[in-house]
Amino acid sequence: MNDALRRELLAMQAADQDRLQTLIETGELERHAYHPRMRAVHERNNARMHALLDAHGWPGQRLVGEDGARAAWLIVQHAVLDPGLMERARPLLAAAVDDDDAEGWCLAYLEDRLRTMAGRPQCYGTQHDFDADGRACPLPIEDPAGVDERRRALGLDTLAEATARIQRRYRPDGASGE
Fold first, then answer.
1. What average pLDDT score do residues 7-21 get?
2. Which of 99, 119, 137, 163 has its CA 20 to 30 A from that of 128?
3. Residue 170 has what DSSP assignment?
4. Of 110, 22, 115, 34, which is closest to residue 70 (Cα–Cα)?
């Protein structure tokens, strides 16, 4: 295991999450389509992730541990400024999942994020938005009848369970449910 790389990925994840939490707490996140301070973190993380993919391929669990691999996923998942990075990472992550070196749910979230960003229906139902009443609803899904089977294959709970969890967490009254 490469502990230095693991620590670096965890620090990149912490920078992302700490900045996000600060912007939420101060109310600044809502005032910008893409907050410049959040953008700066993502641009720095995206550039570094390109270099890490060049050097190591997907940083899987055997290389950086379970938490390091999850951090790598979060960094790529938040790379909305650089869909090319997300597209580049997808086959590497898929190969790691096939090799039991990454968790399947990470691939489901990345695949769905890429699809919804491209205006296409998602495959796994991981991406939700809020309706006019403030309730979470999954974005359009390709083959909705088979979604739970696809979700199970990658280690996710059912779409109904996931949607209920999101609705509890982000209640319409603005109070957190979890």
1. 97
2. 99
3. B
4. 110
**What pTM, to 2 d.p., does this model score?**
0.90
pLDDT digits 0-9 by tens, 117-167: 999 999 999 999 988 888 889 999 999 999 999 999 999 999 999 999 998
96 contacts: CB under 8 Å, gap ≥ 6: 58, 60, 69, 102
Contacts of 103 (CB under 8 A, 6+ apart): 66, 69, 70, 73, 97, 155
Alpha carbons within 13 A on the beta-carbon side of 52: 28
> CB atoms < 10 A from the CB of 53, how many?
17
Give the H/E segment covering residue 161.
Answer: helix 159-169
Cα–Cα distance, 134 to 146 (Å, whole number): 27
